[in-house]
Amino acid sequence: MRGSSNNADNNDAHGVVGISDGHAAGVAGENDASAGTGVYGYSANGTGVLGESSGDEPAIVAHAFGPQTPNNNSVGLYAESANNVAIIGKSSYFGISGGGDETGVIGGSSAGVGVFGSTNATHYAGVEGYGPGHAIYGHTTSAQGSGIYAENMLGGTAGYFIGDVAVTGTLSKGGGGFTIDHPQDPETKYLSHAFVESPEMLNIYSGSVTTDDSGEAVVTLPPYFEALNKDFRYQLTVQGTFAQAIIGEEIDHNRFVIRTDKPSVHVYWQVTGVRRDPFAQTSPVIVERDKTDEERGRYLYPMAYGKPREMGIRPAIQSILEARYDEVVSLIGAPLRYEARPSFQINDR
């Protein structure tokens, strides 16, 4: 299926338009060759491909079934727009559905947003990814950009993860802690604790030991301790009797000695070390730093200082998204009136 529109003066011009009121897709295309496109649409100033479905099927479905070879360039759906949105899919269920052995949906833009999704349903997502690998993957080629950017414009949760989260870089936050079902009343209450913060990258080790008849005890630390830590600090607390406790020998070869002025004294100990591993050395905590010229006069948390939300520091992409949001949503939400559309030229592009 191919379509194009060269009407540069009409934003309603579309290369391919399809509508469905039943249990089928508004626009569907299939390609089983090693190259080519199942659905292709182009518009100089409107939408390359637009589909709408009021049933329970996606508005746009495209499949590519070419052979799995290194030279397989088959594409299920391809759309271009020189000055507007390349693809719009509208449906009460899925607007656009994409699947394949490689990538289901790819979106790119030279000056705007590659993929934009919107929904009016409270419990559904504007963009959803599903698969045995990475359901959603984002990367950026800019040091000032973000692979994935999320914001809750009403002050709620910007990201919600069910399961473990791995971060290989540095995690920066305004605060944090844990929230669990309350151990004493898990059905009706939560229990929260805050993180312990520090201007240094600290590791804390603790335990207890009982000195021998000569008032001495050796504490053995993990074999990686000195490779990971430096600048050791000690705390000792005796238990059960009035006695003095000191560090008899400081840490050497991952062990240290505690001495007491009485025999058989139970001692609780705590050792703190500053990280010295390669990551810590190349990514130190910068405790205080100046804001850039663009950030000055703005806040990470404006409402904490009695300032409006608009005074917040946000990536440049957010300004772009907000400027385009109403425009794109109006395109997605606008009813299709085909009698007002220009005639569609089907050619061999």
How would you characterize this protein structure?
- There is one protein chain.
- By secondary structure, the chain is mostly beta strands.
- Helix content is 8%, strand content 32%.
- Among the domains are: 2-149 and 327-340, no CATH class; 202-282, Immunoglobulin-like (Sandwich).
- The chain has 3 helices and 17 strands.
- It has a 3-stranded parallel β-sheet, with no helix packed on it. Strands 2-5-8 form a 3-stranded parallel β-sheet, with helices on one face. A 3-stranded parallel β-sheet has the order 3-6-9, with no helix packed on it.
- The termini are close together.
Quick take:
The chain is built from three helices and 17 strands. The chain is mostly beta strands and 349 residues long. The chain has a three-stranded parallel sheet, with no helix packed on it.
Layout of secondary structure:
Layout (H helix, E strand, L loop, with lengths): L1 E4 L8 E7 L6 E5 L3 E9 L3 E7 L6 E5 L8 E9 L5 E5 L4 E3 L78 E5 L8 E5 L7 E9 L5 E5 L4 H4 E11 L5 E5 L5 E6 L5 E10 L2 H5 L33 H18 L16
Parallel strand pairs: 1-4, 2-5, 3-6, 4-7, 5-8, 6-9
Antiparallel strand pairs: 10-11, 12-17, 13-16, 14-17, 15-16
